[in-house]
Protein 1
Amino acid sequence: LALYQKNGQLKGRHVVISAGGTVEAIDPVRYISNRSSGKMGYALARAAVEQGADVTLISATSQLPDPVGVRTIHIQSAQELSEQMFTALPHADVIIMAAAVSDYRMAQTAQNKIKKQDSGELNLTLVENPDILAQLGSAKTGQYLVGFAAETQNLMTYAQNKLKKKNADMLIANDVSKDQVGFGYDTNQVTILTKDKEPEMLPLQSKITLAREIMKKISIAINGQVE
Ligand code: CTP
Ligand code: CA
C-alpha cells in the first residue's frame, strides 16, 4: 500500500495543521497547559498526506512521534504557535487549527523558580493570548480555514458563534464532557459546521477514520467537486 497517494484529492495542496495543547511557562520548572493530546491534529496530518497533500504540522506536543512524510515543527507557547502559523499562511491552501491554545499566559514569566509563600496562597496574574484562529480569519486571502470548538455545554450555539466570529470556513465541534470524545481518547464524535450547509453530526469513530472523512470534506470544498 503506497503511503503517498500521488493522485490524491489534495495533490499539490499545502495543508498546515496545528496540534496539541500549548504550554505557557510560569517559571523555569512549571507551566500552564490543558488536556489536549494532539491525537486529532496528528490524525489529520496523516489523512492529508494520504490524500497527496504537502503537510506542515505545527505541534505543541512531544508525546507523539512525528508523522512520516510530514514537515513537523515543534513549539510550546501560543505566541510561538502564532508566529509559525503566520509564517505558513501565505504558502497555505488549507489551515486547520486543531491545537488547544491556552487562552491565557503569565503576565510575566518568573525568571527563577517561585518559592513557596509564607502567606499560604499564591496569586498569578494572567493575560489573554491572541486568538490565532480569529486573526487568521481576518488575514486569510483565499485559504480554507478550519477551527475546532471544545465545549462542555450549549455545543451548537457556542460552535455557531465561533464559526462566525472567527471567520472560519469550517468549525468542528466536539462535546468534550462525553465519554470517548475529544481530549486524550483515540476516538471522537463531532458535528461539522460550515457557512453554507446544515450542521452535520458524525458518529463516534476512531480519530484516524474521522480525520479521513474531514479531509475528504475539505478537499471537496476546495476542489468544488465530488470524488
Ligand atoms: N483558538 C486560537 N487561539 C486562541 C484560542 C483558541 O486559535 N487563543 C482556536 C482553537 O485552536 C480552536 C478554536 O479557536 O480551533 C476554538 O477554541 P476554543 O477554546 O473552543 O474557543 P475559544 O474561542 O478559546 O473560547 P472558549 O475557550 O471561551 O470557549
Ligand atoms: Ca479556549
Protein 2
Amino acid sequence: MIRINDLSKSFGKLTVLNGLSFDVMKGEKLALIGPSGSGKTTILRILMTLENISGGRIEVCGEPLFHMHRNGQDVPADEAHLHKMRRHIGMVFQHFNLFPHKTVLQNITLAPTLTKGEKRIDAEKRARELLDMVGLADKADYMPVQLSGGQKQRVAIARALALSPEIMLFDEVTSALDPELVEEVLQVMQRLAVETDMTMLLVTHEMGFAREFADRVLFFDQGRIVEAGPPEQIFQAPQEERTRTFLRKII
Ligand code: ADP
C-alpha cells in the first residue's frame, strides 16, 4: 500500500530523515514510536504531501507520490497528480482543526460535497453513520465549541473517514487531550483497526495502545528505524539497546 525507498528530508541544514526505507502492507496497522524529534510526524506529513521530500521515492497504492509518468519519463508530480494521490489518504492531527463556525454534521459533509461532488443528502446520511460509529449520533447539530476535546477528536476522525480513504494516518491524536478523555478516542481507533481493512499508521506515545493496536511497530531514532517487529518483540523482547533504553524511560 505504501512503499518508501531511500527517503531523505532536510529542513535547511537539519537532516531529519536520511535513507529511510519501509513498506506498509494493505490492511496493516503500523505504530511509529520513538523519541520526540526523531522524524515520525514528518513521515506522516510527507505521506499527506504537506511536506515535499529532499530525495528518494514513495509509492502509494502502486503509484509514485511525488513523481508521475509522462511520455515514458519520470517527472515531478504536478498539482493535479498530488490532488489525486491525496484522495488515498486521510489524516487526523494532534489538534483537531474543526471548522469552528460549522456544525458537527457540516464539518463532516463539507469535503465530500465540495471536493468529491457528493449529493448533500448522501453525504449527510454517511456523516450520520460515521457519527454513530464514533459514538456521537446525538451531536450532529452541535457546534465544535460545545464539545469536549475527546468528542472533537472523534468528529475529526469521522471527518477524515467521510472521504473513504484507503489509508489513515493518526498523528499523536490523544496527546492534547485531558487524560480522562484519551480512552474514548483510543476505543474508536481500536474499533476501526479491528472492524475495517483500512491501512493505518499511528504515531503515538501511548505504548499500551500501540501494543494493542499494531500488527507491527517501528522504533525510530534520529530519522532511522532502529528496530521493527511485532509488538510482542518490541515491547517484551527488544533486540536493540536503544529500544530498551527508550522503553525504560517512557513506560
Ligand atoms: P517527531 O514526530 O518524531 O517528534 P518531527 O517529525 O516532528 O519528530 O520532527 C523531526 C525534526 O524535524 C525535529 O528536529 C523538528 O524540529 C524538525 N522539523 C519538523 N518540521 C519542521 C519545519 N517545518 N521546519 C524546520 N524543522 C522542522
